[in-house]
Automatic annotation (TrEMBL):
E.C. number: 1.10.3.3
Designated name of the protein: L-ascorbate oxidase
Quaternary structure annotation from Swiss-Prot or TrEMBL: Dimer.
Classification via PROSITE patterns: MULTICOPPER_OXIDASE1, MULTICOPPER_OXIDASE2
Keywords per UniProt: Copper, Disulfide bond, Metal-binding, Oxidoreductase, Repeat, Secreted, Signal
Signal sequence residues: 1-31
Annotated Gene Ontology cellular component terms: extracellular region
Locations listed in the record: Secreted
CDD domains: CuRO_3_AAO
Amino acid sequence: MSSWLQCFQAKPALLLIFALMVSATSPLVEAKIHHHRWEVKYQFRSPDCFQKLSITINGQTPGPTIYAQQGDTVVVELKNSLLTENVAIHWHGIRQIGTPWSDGTEGVTQCPILPGDTFMYKFVVDRAGTYIYHAHYGMQRSAGLHGMIIVSVPDSVVEPFSYDYDRSILLNDWWHKSTYEQAAGLNSIPFVWVKEPQSLLINGRGKFNCSMVGTDQVCNTTDPQCSPYVLTVVPGKTYRLRIASISSLSAFNFELEGHNMTIVEADGNYVEPFVVKNLNIYSGETYSVLVKANQDPSRNYWAALNVVSRNPATPTGVGIINYYPNHPKKSPPSAPPTGPLWNDTAYRIKQSLAIKARKGYAIPPPPTSDRVITLLNTQNKIDGRTRWAVNNISFTLPDTPYLVALKERLHHAFNQSPAPDTYNNSDGYDIYDIPKNPNASYSNSIYRIEFNSTVDVVLQNANTMNPNNSETHPWHLHGHDFWVLGYGTGRFDPVKDRVKYNLVDPIMKNTVPLHPHGWTALRFRADNPGTWMFHCHIESHFFMGMGVVFEEGVERVGRLPTSIMGCGETKRFVRRP
């Protein structure tokens, strides 16, 4: 018998003390509660030197970064001071296990927060990683209502890579028109497109050419709000850069002049490390890359943000990699990198295929699925209006949130017909041609998924209503991570392409690109009770109907808080003073 066990037998009190010590050092006991009080309001801001009304959190855009440790609880008391607009915030990548009402999706998991009201979001960050948050009401994300969430590993856990410093970089595109103007144009006859962004921002900073503005507009290139983002580095040190895209339209290519990047994390999951010269990143994605400051320390270098997958009409967004002790405002002597060709789809697919789960951390997917849902992405017309549709259905949100309607059996609150698992003429549809019949239908029907079943989703891209044009669609699933089984070009072949699935080390993600004229296959377990949005993360595309809703195990959801109610059929569940 060991001496320490004999000691505990002789003195039982020591055993109790030891147990208390172990308990005190366990992740459960160490978990903290982080309280945040946010006020959301419009303020004049000049992130690219051009002054416009922006949506801010406590006066900031991007909003404050939330820092927490795995297992901690985050509480956000959000006051809506927008005066004439509702609001809701989605915690992108946080699975909301046990708290589906805190997902922050207006019309799906909650009623919107009315002007003047305060709403409390409370949830556990159950996994370490890099995440984001953003508005999920109308097109408010484009107006600046977004930020980052950084979740560190428990103290007892060592990550499978090392670095000296940790930095975050948030990327987005920026328009000078208000989201009201954009939304009105998208819903108009004739259709008025939002067009390409005026600027590309790195950590909320960019530079617009002020000589192009009118005399009645304010644009000041000396405004400190639009001074370039500066990443100061110490020669020889390694930096973990947590890079996130919150873009409303653009697919990005991000490059650090003269420096390679090693990708090690994607959407909170460890990646088998591989080196890239530049990073393709799509709206809603997050990555961690390792960068070593190993270049000539006598000069500074460019951080460059370029548009890909769309013919760019926006200048390169730039920041400065400042080698200490050079002056941070010292411009690099070279021109900023322009990135790869914008229409080199093969280059982007190659990088997508290279992202695999890290050895020793891969969670193998179930070998087969119980259900296959194929979602054809098309541009359509309904009553003369331009819309986006999935399987010829353009999605609309109901007045009563699905979570409440299903939990309270309000069957008349939305269309009870099942959403279609595939599209018409799936064997003969020509994805390279303009749709022969561009007409689609509105619906708010949903997909009812058997709880704990395994579901395959095949995203199929197609041509728009413009000849020889197919757009990139980044798809985001709320409440889950999914296995990315494969990418391909052309129309998905259920026999030939399914055998190519990666069932060994597929990466798990919550957001994935659907490349032009191509397909993307993913698999997920329907094991998180609730109602979950799955949609294109391009703001205008979702606004125009490009999304679906999955329901799974709602009967297992606990009692719903009345704070998420008050709209549609839920008004009767809320006591009025």
